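Per reviewer request, we include the raw input and output of the structure prediction for the construct analysed in the revised manuscript.
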Amino acid sequence: MKLQFKHKEYQSDAVEDVVDCFAGQPKVEGVTYRLDPGKLAASAKQGEMDYGTEAFRNAPIALDKAQLLENIQKVQRRRNLPQSKALVATKNCDVNLDVEMETGTGKTYVYIRSMLELNRRYGWSKFIIVVPSIAIREGAQKSLEITAEHFLQDYGKRPRFFTYDSTQPHKLESFSSDGGINVMIINVQAFNATGKDARRIYEELDDFQSRRPIDVIKANHPILILDEPQKMEGKKTTDSFKEFNPLFVLRYSATHKTEHNKVHRLDALDAYNQKLVKKIRVHGIAQKGLSGTTRYLYLESIVVSRQAPLARLEFEIKDKSGTIRTILRKVGVGDNLKTLSNGLGGTERQ
């Protein structure tokens, strides 16, 4: 039995929002370098030189910070998201994009399609999916397997992928030397735990020609995709991301703990309204982070006169340029806040 995948608009929207952040980036494929061969095998002839095989890395981002920020703001205006005033850099990377997708809406499918679309438009081909657990790692690997034919029909390519195993570092050579789309899946325990196997990624290995696996990885300037990043925010883990030398970082989650430049949001309320989930269960007395609850609304006073009373409300509007700002005005019976705010989500109530 072969699984059939349908193209869904809300998933395509999430892909477009990420890819459009790099609009204007030239398409560059086949950026080559010489793969570090390490020490020669014991059987090599004395005096023989090995300069390494040809390998491929991601081209650098050609856009400056102002261009990137303008692209991000354009995407945010399109999705009625709060405007970023600057690129949110971390000690590990200058470009960090957040994609918020409710559980069950296919975020794994979305980030796999995003890899293919980034490759189609800009030529980037080296990706690393970082996951917080073995279970999520297995799920990501399975998704890559079952969507291979589907994406082959759409893009004429299929990603070549593998799961990092400290006992099989030779797979990193294939990851580096192959010119197609290459994906490595790795769980955080493989590089930030204290066990012997975790430390191997930073050690010169005899069975890897005295090379450090992390050095071979970072030479590819990969794009990092963090699946459930809120579960990987320990200092040791976040500090370790710098070792991968990421081109940029994409974070996919339904519940971001730390926010960066958010470029897409499909929260629980959106998913319910689009009939993507059957119901929402709310625990506690407060709801945060939903597009229907985060719009600012403040009742300053009630104006009483001989006519019908008015409310002095402070609320957010979207102006002609797409910028979201706060205003104070009087509102009467029958006024619609969605209309007054120029269509902002989460202000539909009268």
